[in-house]
From TrEMBL:
Alphabetic keyword roster: Signal
Tree of life domain: Bacteria
Taxonomic source organism: Marinobacter confluentis
Signal peptide location: 1-22
Pfam families tied to this protein: DUF6174
Protein name, UniProt field: Lipoprotein
Amino acid sequence: MGLGKATILSVLLFLGGCGSNAVSGAGESDVSAKPPANLQEARQLWRESGVVNYSVTAQMTCYCPQELVQPIRLIVEQGTVVSSKGLEQPLKNLTEDGAQRLTVDGLFLFIEKAVGKNVETLEVSYDRNYGYPMFINYDGHAMIADDERQYRLTDFEPLPDS
């Protein structure tokens, strides 16, 4: 009986150790690194990462057409969206400009504009390894309905240079 418990414990410890280095959205990472504290630090980390081609899943929460609040998988090359795909239904209303706003550079620009205004709410969390915005919570004005937005980037993956 004691051998069975020891075997189970060993297997559980082994399996627990297998996933200990995984960090969502990043390859090899320094889990002790702090995420950037502000837009300037995030942009600097993003530039230093050297990533120019990547894939990412973007999801907006807003008063938008239903198809645009679904997860959207983007492939970005040299800062330009080369592919966008709705993960729950086909995209019909996502314009080229709309897709471009969901890129890392597009979201940095959104944050920069919001910082320049006196907005009600702007909360941003940045990826500790690459500096891209992982989550943005925005409300332009407390008394204006339907201007609230949230953006979430997940499944980020750098792609090789073409």
